[in-house]
């Protein structure tokens, strides 16, 4: 196992502990709802957003424990969005990461409510967790950024654009706009709000990290589309080719595989270039950026 | 029109302006999502929670403008919960306030996303609106209370309990627990977080207002159940007797109509007694409490 893989595994472990501690136990009333929330939030996954948070913290000399609650909140938001996206009224997916989706393991109503409650819990964590910051103004700034990133101008808006565009052909600008909303906004929020926690971060560093996150987020999505065409069904945990089969708007459908790969590569180069002034402490951000376009699932 | 009705109408007007200003226009991309959010949030209704907020503000000498954003945020959360509750996977209602429910006017997927985005917008407003407070610590306290009140230990939890209990008979304690979660927590949050905005509010006043809100919230629900048995279909904007027909757990089903009415009356007496020390400035809270059990729709 490479040192990057070791680092990622230890971050994932720390994140799962952080989430598990903050989620009500499945024994707590109302039990079924809490079980569904735990099922949705603790089902593995790549933990890409939390890894970005821990890597950004390392680049800014913040101890990991400082951003555990931020990582947990962002992952809970991501988990809620997947639960709702998978619903029959939305993407109607039966499998997520090789396991039954939340509404399959429970039921549609419970999945809707589990998603709703996970969103609320994320804001509860951001507003209440002591280790995040001593400064309420920083806390407010973090909540403002995240609430903006996941609303109608961000993640929820992106999902709406995605649904509306099914069966229609998007051009390159429209496809990019969809992804900037749907996944880009939360990925950027993960990195930028981590920077908010560092007391002596400069404006230039915030902007460099934001640019990094913007590029990495888009590359992540392009590579996801590429994997969906070429990937290994078992590693992906879902049906390969599903996006193409449903005539979805993807980068390979619009640009072809080779051009899509090369777009992702340039975005990662651009992302890494923006880390220049952070020096060697940005090591995990560099490694994470490379991982984005080398992963096979 | 009584002076209370005039006051309530002017509060409602102010609230609708406050909400309308804070919601993206229906022309803004993604349009359909924004149209659904506006449809759900600006469809009239009793505005009970905002009226409680404005009445509490009056009792504590806070100008109405100070709590416009709080009233808007709480009403957006209430609106999101109705949109999700009405979905086919949940209560499956076609009508809300005499108009097609959000998923009927749009579609299920858009209704799910509109609800999600309304929740996020509420937190955006609470974290960003300048008039609410100058003190970020107060802002954080408000967000903490509200995020707690609407999660799995509050509103979303209550809806889960409601769904699970359908077809089962709840006893009095279980029925009360359901309502304390489902509607009580947000009603209490509306009143208590308004108190947080008043710089010189005492702990005793906060507790008195919390007790007031707790009693009024439960009376509101009991009276709702009573109206559902006896009310006028047109005024209610939904099918009378629907709760009984579906064998739902309601106060009249458990206690009979007359006992339910008298329980609501005692709760309102109890609520009003707790306002004693606030004196004449609590006038609108008293009037609102009486309105709760005298309204016919």
From TrEMBL, chains A, B:
Pfam hit, one: polyprenyl_synt
UniProt GO BP: phospholipid biosynthetic process; terpenoid biosynthetic process
Gene3D superfamilies the UniProt entry points to: Farnesyl Diphosphate Synthase
GO CC term (a single one): cytoplasm
Entry keyword GTP-binding: no
Domain of life: Bacteria
Co-factor(s): Mg(2+)
Keyword Repressor recorded: no
Record's keyword terms, sorted: Isoprene biosynthesis, Magnesium, Metal-binding, Transferase
MF terms in GO: metal ion binding; prenyltransferase activity
Record-linked InterPro entries: Isoprenoid_synthase_dom_sf, Polyprenyl_synt, Polyprenyl_synt_CS, Prenyl_diphosphate_synthase
SUPFAM superfamilies named in the record: Terpenoid synthases (SSF48576)
Family: Belongs to the FPP/GGPP synthase family.
Listed name of the protein: Farnesyl-diphosphate synthase
């Amino acid at each position: 196992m490479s040192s990057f893989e070791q680092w990622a595994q230890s971050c994932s472990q720390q994140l799962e502990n952080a989430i598990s501690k903050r989620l009500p136990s499945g024994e707590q009333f109302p039990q079924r709802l809490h079980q569904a929330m735990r099922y949705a939030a603790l089902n593995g996954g790549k933990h890409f957003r939390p890894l970005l948070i821990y890597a950004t913290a390392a680049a800014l000399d913040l101890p990991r424990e400082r951003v555990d609650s931020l990582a947990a909140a962002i992952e809970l938001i991501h988990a809620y969005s997947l639960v709702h996206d998978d619903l029959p009224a939305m993407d109607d997916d039966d499998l997520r990461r090789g396991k039954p989706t939340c509404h399959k393991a429970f039921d549609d109503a419970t999945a809707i409510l589990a998603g709703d409650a996970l969103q609320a819990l994320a804001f509860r964590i951001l507003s209440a967790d002591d280790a995040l910051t001593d400064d309420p103004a920083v806390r407010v700034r973090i909540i403002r950024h995240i609430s903006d990133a996941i609303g109608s101008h961000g993640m929820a808006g992106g999902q709406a654009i995605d649904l509306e565009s099914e069966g229609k052909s998007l051009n390159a600008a429209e496809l990019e706009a969809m992804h900037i909303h749907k996944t880009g906004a939360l990925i950027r929020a993960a990195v930028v709000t981590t920077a908010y926690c560092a007391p002596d971060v400069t404006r230039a560093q915030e902007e460099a990290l934001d640019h990094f996150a913007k590029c990495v987020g888009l590359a992540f999505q392009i590579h996801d589309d590429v994997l969906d065409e070429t990937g290994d069904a078992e590693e992906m945990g879902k049906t390969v080719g599903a996006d193409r089969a449903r005539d979805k708007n993807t980068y390979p459908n619009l640009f072809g595989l080779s051009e899509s790969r090369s777009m992702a590569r340039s975005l990662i180069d651009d992302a890494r270039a923006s880390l220049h002034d952070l020096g060697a402490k940005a090591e995990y951000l560099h490694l994470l950026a490379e991982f984005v376009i080398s992963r096979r699932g």
